[in-house]
């Protein structure tokens, strides 16, 4: 996309925080100003956005969009991951995307007074917690329409962070364009691949003659349209992104299902102590070496103890992707090997969960508990805008 530079500025304004998430107003609840603070040295890493070079601006037929495009902090990238700052008073929560992304809203729901830190990749969000730049990372893992976000399952395994909570966020998509643009002018719609998938049928029903292109995050798509003054391109993103980047909402609630929900997990360096005084979920990942009957045995360890599974996901076992079985007469069978991710409804403080895992361990070649954490029990409200 466009190029940015970082600058160290001193002194810096304090980052603003999320208001309490219990506010029920239908207008935007989250007004998180993001910056990565280094309070111990009195300097703040402020990431400023420069104007894009003229050749990126297109036809230079600029639409006035006022203050909404004043310089904003840029997402952290790998090169920002220097030694950790001291703790501030607010929890620092890393998310992938730019302000206005649903992941930022999820950070605000999980930690109402947090300083949300935008990161340009999921990997950077993990690393920012590992390097003490952030205290938590918030990560989308599955959506009710688009399914699992596989990359994050792989990253959960590659990194040693612990799942300490989950939030389920209703995702209400809007079609955004520069002010004054009509749907008929559009030739392209850009967004995060999950958002494009979640709006697939509605986009067709709207009768738009557009190509669909994937970018890193929904709010980043809105920012890209605004910064580059793209008159032929719309973005799928939140109403908050429209507000932040000075875009107009051409269509509201364009997700294919009004109950569209994304589940996010919160990650920390240390696990939380599991409890039994409220509903808990536990996430595990395992591998086995002896074919599909083992999977049946593993799952029955939960069934016999009346433990419900809420999710099962398989991913390629990257270190042993293929198991070769030679049969002298019939040739060579090549079976794919998998890692299985399972979420179950029990706390690791419960003996039935401990016993189930002890049994699972007998059948598996690898087992890791990713976390045991409180379930998101917020009431179901599919029509709410976020
Ligand atoms: O792009 C964003 O706004 C995100 O927060 C990412 C993401 C995702 O990865 O699924 C989160 C929620 C929505 O399902 C669409 C996109």
UniProtKB/TrEMBL annotation:
Q: Which stretches are tagged as biased composition: Basic residues?
A: 27-41
Where does this protein reside within or beyond the cell?
Plastid, Chloroplast stroma
Keyword Lyase part of the UniProt annotation = yes
The answer to whether keyword Amino-acid biosynthesis applies is yes
Per its record, the protein catalyses: L-arogenate + H(+) = L-phenylalanine + CO2 + H2O
Say which species the protein is native to.
Cucurbita maxima (Pumpkin)
Query: Can you name this protein?
Result: Arogenate dehydratase
Q: Where is the ACT domain?
A: 283-374
Q: Note the Pfam families from the entry.
A: PDT
- Keywords in UniProt for this one? Amino-acid biosynthesis, Aromatic amino acid biosynthesis, Chloroplast, Lyase, Phenylalanine biosynthesis, Plastid, Transit peptide
Role description: Converts the prephenate produced from the shikimate-chorismate pathway into phenylalanine.
EC number(s) of the enzyme?
Answer: 4.2.1.91
Chief subcellular location: plastid
One Gene Ontology term of the biological-process aspect is: L-phenylalanine biosynthetic process
